[in-house]
Every structure is written in structure tokens, then in C-alpha cells.
């Protein structure tokens, strides 16, 4: 048996087509949720952080902690494990884009419909007004386009070159679309062969290497061919030879690796600098202070110490950022317009207790200090603060977070 991957546009009736294919073929459905759960179990990352990789919008902290890239590495490993387990599988969703194009026994399907057809389905199935449905479709298409661009460097997520079949479900119909897929399953061109299974093994080895590198804070492109591993560096490196030796030392002991070659890719000559993640240093620090010049300068000083930081200027924005981007450490002023720091601290520790909060204020009293510590603040510091003292406090908070994980 072969493997089927199905990528689709929202409201293109993909669910109905997939159900008919499953009912007729006896294949087993593998959803994004199952792949995400496997990746989370393998990595120890939260499922929510793994699933966020499918979204176009990356975390504001991503350039420092490579969280999206690490999630993709573990998703690849989860997918490779599934493919090694056997055939007769149908992968539906974002994860369907993960297998490399050179695995010959995968039938790659794209199910898409015209905008008018999709709007009609949204109205019929969900009762959505046209304007609301168009907004949902546009957002989902943006996510899918960004995902495909990340994995394949292709701008059009529905490009024919990415698939064996692009089926316009609205024009073709659900039943006929399913029949076309089932018909192509009998094509000898997608039958599993020793060569195609070897490509799955290559995919698995590359995924293992990628996760090993990610665990050491590295982000490079990995390809494997019968045990020969090629690492491609796509960002400028000040000491390239040193990095190449470091990468080779990490990868060589991985089971199945016979040789390691490094190369520079097309992104190497761009201005972006290669950054290795140091997990001993905080990479998700949220600074909350209405004194804009002070907090921007503080952010720059932290970034000079390789600490990833983002800045907001009021309590409401801080709470929004905690919900959306899940910072690990917050440096919080007490006196701000609107929601004050004590109320922000109270809500954060109630709703997101794992976030460590460092109070940094120039106006607090001893009573404020006692209140903050009772509410769960990690530390209470006064302005102006010595940057080395703040750095040590941040690292201590980070150590507590890592110990908790």
C-alpha cells in the first residue's frame, strides 16, 4: 500500500472527500492533532507551542529562541516515525507538507475550491455571513501559505508542482474527487519500492539529526542520503569554520550517521546573523513600563547580552502579550496608567503561574514589596538597577523555569 497526503483550503469540503477515500480504501487517518501530540511527547514541548508552528505569525521572541524551528524539527521526526511504521496511511492537514518530495510511494493531493464555492460551503455548513467567512478563509490561507513557504520555499500553497493532483472540489464534486484519488492509488508509479522506503529512512535520519541540533540551540537545514548527512547554513556566520566543526561534533555520534558535510545556502550572504540559542539565558522576557525611553534602552541592553526581549507600555498590552506569546519572564513596573503593576501581577500569577515576574519600580513602598512577594513575584528591584544585578536575577528566574519543566 501507498501513503496519501491531503492538503486543502478551508471550506473546500476536504473532510467529506477524505471520509469517502477512507471508507473505500481502508486507509487509516492521521490528523495534525496526532502528529502534534507525538511531537510534543518526543520533545517535551507543550502541544500548544508545537501547533503554533502552523501559524503564519511567529512569536515576537522567535528570533532568540527558535521555538518555531524547533517545533518543525520535532514535527518532522513525528511524521518520519509514522512513515516508518508502515503504509496505508492518509495524512490530512498541515503535516501533510512535511515529507520530502523524493519519497515515491506518497500520493500527494491538494483539495481546493474557488472563493465563491468556499463562501457557499461556509454559509451552508456553518451559517457564516459572507464577510465573516471571507475573513476566516483569508486568515487560514495566510497560515497555509506561510507554512508551505517555510517548508518548500514556494509562494503559492496550491502550486501544481507540489502535488500529484490538484483537485478543484467545487467544480469536480465530492464523489468524483474521491474517485480520482482512489483511481490513482492503483497507479504503479506510487507503489512502495526498496528505493522509496530508503528515502523514508533518510527522512527519519535527517529528522533525528535536526532535533539533536535543535536541542543544542542550532538551526540549520539537514539532508541525509544513505547515512551521508549534509548540513546547510543559511545565515551569515562570523566564524564559519568554528561553527562547522561544532555542528559536525554534535551530529557525528548520532546513530546512523556515516559522514557529515557542511555547506552554506543561499541565505548565507544576507545580513541576518546566525544565532545559536543558549538555553541557559532567558529568551522570552517581556518588559512592561510606561517610561518608553527607559524600557527601550533596557531592552537593547538585554539583547546585547543575548536575552530575547519584547516591550509593551501598559498593563492591558502586557496581559494580551502573555495570552498570545507566553513570555517566560516579565519585568514589570508598578505605576502605570490604566491597569497598575500589582493588578497585572495578580492576574498573571493566577492565569499563568509559570510566568516569573520581576518587579522593577522607582515608586514602590515596603507595603508594595510585601504585597508583590505574597502574590508570587520572583523578585522586587528598585530603579535605577545595575544591569548585572538584573541579568543575574533574570538568569535565576530562568533556572527556576527550566527546573520546573
Description:
This protein has 405 residues and is of the alpha/beta class. It folds into three domains: 3-190, Rossmann fold, CATH 3.40.50.300; 216-264, no CATH class; 285-404, Rossmann fold. The chain contains 16 helices and 13 strands. The longest helix has 23 residues, at 130-152. The radius of gyration is 24 Å and the shape is globular. The two termini are 41 Å apart. This is Response regulator receiver. Residues 284-398 form the Response regulatory domain. The modification 4-aspartylphosphate is found at residue 333.
What descriptors fit this protein?
Rossmann fold; 405 residues; globular; alpha/beta; 3 domains; 5-stranded parallel sheet; 16 helices
The CATH topology label of the largest domain is Rossmann fold
Q: What is the element string, with H for helices and E for strands? A: EHEHHHHEEHHEHHHEEHEEHEHEHEHEH
N- to C-terminal distance: 41 Å
Mean pLDDT, as a whole number? 94
User: What is the 3D shape?
Assistant: globular
Estimated helix fraction? 40-55%
Amino acid at each position: 500500500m501507498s501513503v496519501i497526503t491531503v492538503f486543502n483550503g478551508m471550506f473546500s469540503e476536504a473532510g467529506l472527500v477524505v471520509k469517502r477515500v477512507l471508507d473505500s480504501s481502508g486507509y487509516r487517518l492521521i490528523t495534525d492533532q496526532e502528529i502534534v501530540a507525538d511531537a510534543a511527547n518526543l520533545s517535551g514541548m507543550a502541544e500548544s507551542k508545537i501547533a503554533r508552528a502552523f501559524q503564519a505569525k511567529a512569536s515576537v521572541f522567535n528570533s532568540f529562541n527558535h521555538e518555531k524551528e524547533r517545533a518543525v524539527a520535532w514535527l518532522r521526526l513525528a511524521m518520519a516515525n509514522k512513515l516508518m511504521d508502515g503504509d496505508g496511511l492518509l495524512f490530512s492537514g498541515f503535516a501533510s507538507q512535511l515529507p520530502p518530495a523524493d519519497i515515491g510511494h506518497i500520493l500527494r493531493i491538494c483539495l481546493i475550491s474557488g472563493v465563491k464555492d468556499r463562501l457557499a460551503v461556509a454559509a451552508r455548513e456553518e451559517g457564516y455571513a459572507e464577510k465573516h467567512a471571507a475573513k476566516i478563509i483569508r486568515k487560514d490561507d495566510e497560515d497555509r501559505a506561510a507554512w508551505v513557504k517555510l517548508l518548500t520555499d514556494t509562494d503559492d500553497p496550491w502550486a501544481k508542482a507540489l502535488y500529484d493532483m490538484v483537485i478543484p472540489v467545487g467544480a469536480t464534486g465530492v464523489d468524483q474527487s474521491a474517485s480520482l484519488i482512489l483511481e490513482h492509488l492503483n497507479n504503479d508509479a506510487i507503489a512502495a519500492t526498496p528505493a522509496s522506503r530508503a528515502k523514508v529512512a533518510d527522512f527519519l535520519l535527517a529528522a533525528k539529526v535536526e532535533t539533536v541540533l535543535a536541542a543544542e540551540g542550532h538551526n540549520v537545514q539537514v539532508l541525509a542520503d544513505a547515512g551521508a548527512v549534509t548540513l546547510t547554513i543559511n545565515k551569515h556566520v562570523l566564524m564559519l569554520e568554528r561553527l562547522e566543526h561544532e555542528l559536525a561534533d554534535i551530529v557525528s555520534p548520532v546513530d546512523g550517521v556515516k559522514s557529515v558535510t557542511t555547506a552554506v545556502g543561499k541565505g548565507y550572504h544576507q545580513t541576518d546573523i546566525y544565532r545559536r540559542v543558549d538555553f541557559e539565558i532567558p529568551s522570552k522576557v517581556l518588559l512592561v513600563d510606561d517610561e518608553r525611553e527607559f524600557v527601550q534602552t533596557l531592552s537593547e541592553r538585554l539583547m546585547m547580552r543575548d536575552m530575547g526581549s519584547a516591550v509593551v507600555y501598559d498593563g492591558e498590552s502586557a496581559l494580551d502579550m502573555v495570552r498570545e506569546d507566553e513570555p517566560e519572564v516579565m519585568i514589570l513596573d508598578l505605576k502605570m496608567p490604566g491597569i497598575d503593576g500589582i493588578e497585572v501581577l495578580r492576574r498573571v500569577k493566577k492565569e499563568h503561574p509559570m510566568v516569573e515576574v520581576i518587579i522593577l519600580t522607582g515608586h514602590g513602598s515596603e507595603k508594595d514589596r510585601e504585597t508583590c512577594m505574597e502574590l508570587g513575584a520572583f523578585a522586587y528591584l528598585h530603579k535605577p538597577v545595575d544591569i548585572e544585578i538584573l541579568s543575574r536575577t533574570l538568569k535565576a528566574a530562568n533556572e527556576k523555569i527550566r527546573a520546573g519543566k
